[in-house]
């Protein structure tokens, strides 16, 4: 049954053609029977008129505007040629409904006007001999009601279809917007993960590499220093693993866990530990805090920590063997200032101007992204007297 219904929906002209054949048969056979009972013959023009009106029904959905014109011409021919109304004139109701539902707006208005005029014109052309003027007027009004109802029904169908089409369009647009938002969210999450991985891996691995090189250099001459370097490598590796577990925990659960297996994200209090780690790895670092320390939003604290971490990592990578660094934290009333400088040879120009080449320069890119996310400003570049400088200003908001 469902297949038959789907077939009929896919071939509406066949359905209309079937009803057109039924209408043609009822009109011709019924008209012939009526005329035979009266002792007369079926008028010669009746069959062409019935055929044209049946054609209107058959092609109403394929060519609604043209079939409306054909129906109007056929109706006027009936009036002029004195072909009395019959069952085939039901096609006028059908075409009025069809044009109101699927036809052009001008055709819908014409169909309404023609439908309201059809009944009065028919009463004027073929008045009832046994009825007075009042009865004919009343009958005209009554016969005009079906045309008005057919038009109202078709127009309501048009409005409903337009409403559902608008809903479908809105749903499709919302779906596209959701997909776009999902893609943006995925890109942002990938960038965040990339920043975290870079900060964790680059800093800790660089410390381990420096310590390993130092241990290999003094292994025979100074075993105690080599042992201390190996202990630093071990501690740095454990710290890297702890941060990796934290990051993996965030990826699995979608939220930051501050207890249990996963360690919390680092903040300003861990900067001193970071500086001490760098000192133990052989990088002299001068650390000062100015202003009144206060509790800051977690995002700001993590941003500040990562900036200092990346800056010291870059000093170790690009500053040279005798480079030293200084870290300044300045608490303003409405912002936190960061200044990290070194007296080394500085990073290559392309790493801080163009964002890197051949996959390099991700640390500075991550710094700018982090600072931009909290609404701050970042300036990175070589110092006039040599070395490299990174300064940032992060807006402060009371932590709740």
From TrEMBL:
Source organism superkingdom: Bacteria
A GO cellular component entry from the record: membrane
TM region positions: 12-30, 42-60, 67-100, 136-154
Catalytic reaction list: ATP + protein L-histidine = ADP + protein N-phospho-L-histidine
EC number assigned by the record: 2.7.13.3
InterPro entries: DUF7134, HATPase_C_sf, HATPase_dom, His_kinase_dom, Sensor_HK_TwoCompSys, Sig_transdc_His_kin_sub3_dim/P
GO MF term (any one): phosphorelay sensor kinase activity
Keyword terms: ATP-binding, Coiled coil, Kinase, Membrane, Nucleotide-binding, Phosphoprotein, Transferase, Transmembrane, Transmembrane helix, Two-component regulatory system
Coiled coil: 157-191
Residue span(s) of domain Histidine kinase: 200-398
Identification of the protein by name: histidine kinase
Organism from which the protein derives: Streptomyces sp. R17
């Amino acid at each position: 049954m469902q297949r038959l219904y789907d077939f009929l929906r896919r071939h509406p002209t066949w359905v209309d053609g079937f009803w057109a054949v039924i209408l043609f048969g009822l009109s011709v056979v019924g008209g012939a029977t009526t005329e035979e009972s009266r002792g007369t013959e079926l008028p010669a023009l009746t069959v062409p008129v019935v055929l044209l009106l049946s054609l209107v029904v058959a092609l109403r959905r394929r060519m609604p505007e043209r079939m409306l014109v054909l129906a109007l011409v056929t109706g006027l021919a009936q009036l002029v040629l004195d072909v009395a109304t019959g069952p085939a004139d039901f096609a006028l109701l059908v075409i009025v409904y069809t044009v109101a539902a699927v036809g052009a707006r001008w055709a819908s208005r014409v169909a309404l006007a023609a439908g309201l005029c059809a009944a009065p014109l028919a009463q004027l052309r073929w008045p009832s001999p046994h009825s007075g003027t009042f009865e004919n007027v009343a009958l005209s009004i009554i016969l005009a009601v079906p045309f008005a109802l057919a038009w109202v029904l078709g127009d309501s169908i048009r409005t409903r279809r337009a409403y559902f089409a608008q809903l479908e369009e809105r749903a499709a647009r919302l779906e596209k917007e959701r997909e776009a938002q999902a893609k943006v969210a995925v890109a942002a999450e990938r960038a965040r993960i990339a920043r975290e991985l870079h900060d964790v891996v680059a800093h800790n691995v660089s410390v381990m590499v420096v310590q390993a090189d130092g241990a290999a250099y003094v292994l025979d001459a100074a075993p105690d220093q080599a042992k201390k370097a190996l202990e630093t490598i071990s501690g740095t590796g454990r710290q890297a693993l702890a941060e990796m577990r934290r990051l993996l925990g965030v990826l699995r659960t979608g939220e930051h866990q501050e207890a249990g297996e996963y360690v919390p994200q680092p903040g300003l209090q861990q900067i001193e530990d970071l500086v001490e780690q760098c000192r133990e790895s052989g990088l002299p670092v001068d650390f000062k805090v100015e202003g009144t320390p206060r509790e800051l939003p977690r995002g700001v604290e993590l941003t500040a920590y990562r900036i200092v971490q990346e800056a010291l990592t870059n000093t170790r990578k690009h500053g040279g063997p005798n480079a030293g660094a200084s870290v300044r934290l300045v608490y303003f009333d409405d912002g936190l200032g960061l200044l990290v400088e070194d007296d080394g040879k500085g990073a290559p120009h392309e790493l801080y101007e163009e964002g890197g080449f051949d996959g390099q320069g991700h640390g500075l890119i991550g710094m700018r992204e982090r600072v931009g996310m909290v609404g701050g400003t970042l300036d990175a570049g070589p110092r006039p007297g040599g070395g490299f400088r990174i300064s940032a200003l992060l807006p402060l908001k009371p932590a709740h």
